[in-house]
Amino acid sequence: MGVVMARWGLVGFMILSALVLGSQAKAEEWKMEQGGIEPGKVMLGMRAGFAPLTQSLTANTSTDVGSLVNFQAMYSLNKWLLVGMMLEWERHGVSVERPSIDLGHQDTVSVLPTVEVRPVRFGPVIPYANMSFGVNVNSFGENSGNQISPSNTFAWRLGWGADYMFTKQFALNTEMAYKRNDGHATVNGNLNNDWNASSFGFLFGAKLFF
Questions:
Q1: How far apart are alpha carbons 13 and 4 in whole angstroms?
Q2: What is the pTM of this model?
Q3: How far apart are CA 17 and CA 46, in angstroms?
Q4: What is the pLDDT of residues 33-74, one digit of tens each?
């Protein structure tokens, strides 16, 4: 009986030790580290998602939640700072509310020089924030016979998100961003100074690191 109890005690001790060591290893794996990337790395990203406008495009219009596609190329100068470029495409269907008329859709291509900071990492999770300044190239596809020409505008984009590193070369990514796109439009020869396509973007995709 004593031998059996000793054996079970030894098994219990081994199981408990394994659990303690596993918990310590897990805590070690997820500990906070300074810097979210190695210096001299090239990062390529492709994300897609959706973008609601922050307000009505202009008076008496309704705008749908738009499609969003984003390409990103960055270079890490050190452990926490990256510089590079984003190219983003966004489309919104636009209609008049009263009377109900489908006007068409606005397309925006944004060219965005970008700076990104990655101060820390938590195991495989790397949070970050980025800021971009550039230009929004706006165009309109008409469905109703109206002639609508939105202006190109100054672009300011502020984003924040996180990468989950599956390997040193591959990560899944999610990001939320605000983008300013406030200008004017010429509608049937008349100038409309109240034309604001600023939006919140929600992106999901993947990144490669070289």
A1: 14
A2: 0.84
A3: 44
A4: 999 999 999 999 999 999 999 999 998 899 999 999 999 999
Are 38 and 79 in contact by the 8 Å Cβ rule? The answer is yes
CB 199 within 8 A of CB 179: yes
Locus of tokens 């596993």:
22
Q: Which residue, among 122, 62, 114, 60, has the nearest Cα to 88 in the 3D structure?
A: 114
What are the residue ranges spanned by the domains of the chain? 1-30, 33-209
| CA neighbor of 178 nearest in space, from 58, 86, 51, 67 | 51
Residues with Cβ within 8 Å of residue 5, at least 6 apart in sequence? none
Locate the DSSP E strands across 53-119.
61-63, 66-76, 81-96, 101-117
What confidence tier does 25 reach under pLDDT thresholds 50, 70, 90?
A: very low
Looking at the domain that runs over 33-209, which CATH code has it been given? Answer: 2.40.160.20
| 129 close to 169: Cβ distance less than 8 angstroms | no
Taken in order 161, 107, 157, 195, the sign of the CA dihedral is negative
DSSP bridge partners of 111: 87, 135
Integer angstrom CA distances of residue 92 from 17, 101, 138, 143, 194:
58, 15, 11, 13, 17
CA dihedral sign of residues 81, 37, 46, 67: negative
